[in-house]
Design goal:
The protein starts with 9 loop residues before the first helix and ends with a strand. It has 110 residues and is mainly alpha-helical. The chain contains five helices and two strands; from the N terminus they run H-E-H-H-H-H-E.
């Protein structure tokens, strides 16, 4: 039995052209506290809070990226994801004085 499969790559080329035209928006989610690497990497209560935040948001981001590209809203979509990472990281950050949690912020890359 032989199957003939025809693949229409027009949509793929259209999305690639949109990304090339818009560029790749970049946002950083960071904290501004010198709290030491040990607090993040070896805290038994809240280990790797920033990485867990990105893991939480990643499925939503990639599920909806096609719609954002087609609507010409890639920057807004990426910005929204960055703020979701910020919120989740703040929610799960180790809490001693609140300085770390309050310092987590999002900024657009230049």
């Amino acid at each position: 039995m032989t199957f003939k499969l025809t693949i229409d790559t027009r949509k793929l080329h259209q999305i690639a052209a949109l990304v090339k035209a818009e560029g790749s928006p970049k946002y950083f989610v960071a904290d501004g506290v010198e709290y030491g690497l040990e607090n993040e990497l070896h805290n038994p209560r809240k280990p790797h809070f920033m990485r867990n935040a990105t893991d939480y948001v990643r499925p939503w981001y990639f599920k909806n990226i096609g719609k954002a590209l087609m609507a010409g809203e890639l920057d807004a979509h990426t910005r929204s994801a960055a703020f979701q990472v910020q919120a989740d990281a703040a929610l799960h950050a180790p809490f001693l004085t609140g300085a770390l949690r309050n310092s987590i912020h999002t900024e657009k890359a230049e």
